[in-house]
Amino acid sequence: MSVAEQRETFEAIIDAQVLQQTIDTLQAVVQEAIFTLDEDGIRAAAVDPGNVAMTRVDLDAAAFESYWADGGRIGVNLTRLDDIVSKANADDIIHLELDEETRKLNIRFRNVDVSMALIDPDAIRKEPDLPNLDDKWHADLHVEAAMLSEAVDIADLISDHVRFRSVADEGVLHVEAQGDTDDSDVTVEGDDLLPGSEIGEDCNSLLSLGYFTDLFKPVPNDAEVRLRHGTEHPVLFEYEFADGHGFAEGFQAPRVEAR
Amino acid sequence: MSVAEQRETFEAIIDAQVLQQTIDTLQAVVQEAIFTLDEDGIRAAAVDPGNVAMTRVDLDAAAFESYWADGGRIGVNLTRLDDIVSKANADDIIHLELDEETRKLNIRFRNVDVSMALIDPDAIRKEPDLPNLDDKWHADLHVEAAMLSEAVDIADLISDHVRFRSVADEGVLHVEAQGDTDDSDVTVEGDDLLPGSEIGEDCNSLLSLGYFTDLFKPVPNDAEVRLRHGTEHPVLFEYEFADGHGFAEGFQAPRVEAR
Amino acid sequence: MSVAEQRETFEAIIDAQVLQQTIDTLQAVVQEAIFTLDEDGIRAAAVDPGNVAMTRVDLDAAAFESYWADGGRIGVNLTRLDDIVSKANADDIIHLELDEETRKLNIRFRNVDVSMALIDPDAIRKEPDLPNLDDKWHADLHVEAAMLSEAVDIADLISDHVRFRSVADEGVLHVEAQGDTDDSDVTVEGDDLLPGSEIGEDCNSLLSLGYFTDLFKPVPNDAEVRLRHGTEHPVLFEYEFADGHGFAEGFQAPRVEAR
């Protein structure tokens, strides 16, 4: 087999807005990320240096106007890619192509043509595997992103931490904060808990707000977010974009509480 | 008489916008203020530490959707209250309630519930009594706030001080500034002096702009401002808000001029 | 001849927007400028202290609502004039008048009247004469300002320099940048090269972006810009404003390239 045949190839066409959402999601946590270019789409994940917050994006091949890849991995400087992609208009179509010889990513839209150096994927910190916590997440909540975002904004006025507290009996999520002198409680219940929501038993998770606001900032206001949590286990939220062909999730370890 | 019977009580419902206007007015001068909760409404006043600028707000009970109080006094951290109230939308209804036991103010709107610690009113600097200068204010001017605001903006380009100079003969208010090399003069006259305006004799007041711009900043652009001044006496301006049920005033000592 | 008869006079009425464009153009390069007040209009030019970038504005008498001058020169603090003129609304009419005795410029609009001290023109650095390079500029390109501005924005992501490279054969302008690892190429061709464009022979100019972005920033997005360049000679761009009665140009020396 010749060297040429071993080379990875990647060529895709995508809406600027979908690519931007992907970049924003990863940038919430890191500045460099590994993109895995599978036949059926792109996957990327990143964890912050403190191993507290993790984010993951999947873009199905169907999220692209056209997509072709044969399974390589590329290391991407997200800040640089963001600089370039943010110059495109929301309705621009972006053409991406991996130059196999130079290991550069070619980015084209309108009359713009940029060649961006890639990073050796082996030089980028790997994300740890996510534990499967399906049996620990007793609260499964579906909420409009804007509502969750506002709830967390209120907590941010009061404290550096936010508590998600789901009460099974009452079918309510409390987004709480406790400061030195002040307290806040934003309740999400009734029709604000969208269909599919289920609180199997009481759950209680305390999170550092610094990480959570970063992690949640890229979520589009009109996204339906599925938030799952338990008690003293990590919190997971996920949502779809790109007409359901894009999938993003955020995962944050809880703050351990003194007893 | 039991302790319980002596406790102060306060519960009120108010438009977010009206409460915000009240907070903004006081914040022009101080960060903490005493609210007096009378049966017929709320009163608050504040003077800056240098005793140069003073502001006062009265909110009649009719400015509220519902109001009940029995004459207490509460000390309020305005920055903190502003943080919370500014999260409400302009058309939100805010529910305020004094928790007599914890001495906290409960603030509720939509699905938000915040409990904010109050400050001991005795720990907050009292405002001095305002002298009655009705016989010193020979110029009584009614002007749209936006016009006065623009006039003062021009003065601010030229100098650290603004002079209000009312000329009785000509029926004109000059808003003047004199810099080291440049001068400005914005004239308010004719239809721009609204009905009720009267200049009994020439008046001339020099004010520090730093204080005046802070004091005037919260005035809504479309408010009709009544500005009264004399010569080397404090300047008073006042306006109504909340459909006439709210009343705000600013009062500033003049800069003494060398002769 | 009496002293009074020797005095320079100047009185003019102009749209705030046209005056603002004139100020912005000069401010791209300097903070003080000499305005020459000829019978047929105002001319001003300025060069940056490093002699790299130069700008020039001509305002025909026809650009004014009314104009009268007899050939004087005034030194203007652009920052100060900008502060004042930016307080006018875009559709305000500004009245300018030179006070011959005090050497101040009187600026009036609406009810505002400002008297601004002028600077001795002899205290302001003269601009050097522009060399005539008509026979060196082999590329004569007409492009919409917004397109050129976007092209330069992309270059700014990649490097501190931008290269204008016109290819005669292909009838294309490349706006290129070369960074340590990344490259960009924005092409302007076809209908984007507006009528009048002509590339006589290949041209290649490398410019410092810091200067060029400052110089180009005041150009209105919808202006048609005429850009002329050669190889290792200064680049000139020019455009009209004020319905063709205003004329602005920017001129920048190339960065000398190592061979």
Automatic annotation (TrEMBL), chains A, B, C:
InterPro entries in the record: DNA_clamp_sf (IPR046938), Pr_cel_nuc_antig (IPR000730), Pr_cel_nuc_antig_N (IPR022648)
Keywords: DNA replication, DNA-binding
Record flagged with keyword Oxidoreductase: no
Domain Proliferating cell nuclear antigen PCNA N-terminal residues, every copy: 14-111
Pfam family, one: PCNA_N
SUPFAM superfamilies noted in UniProt: DNA clamp
Ranges in a coiled coil: none
GO-annotated biological processes: leading strand elongation; regulation of DNA replication
Domain of life: Archaea
Claim: Nucleotide-binding is one of the keywords in the record: no
GO MF annotations in UniProt: DNA binding; DNA polymerase processivity factor activity
Family per similarity comment: Belongs to the PCNA family.
Function recorded in the entry: Sliding clamp subunit that acts as a moving platform for DNA processing. Responsible for tethering the catalytic subunit of DNA polymerase and other proteins to DNA during high-speed replication.
NCBIfam families in alphabetical order: PRK01115.1-5
Assembly, per entry: Homotrimer. The subunits circularize to form a toroid; DNA passes through its center. Replication factor C (RFC) is required to load the toroid on the DNA.
Protein name: DNA polymerase sliding clamp
Native source species: Halorarum salinum
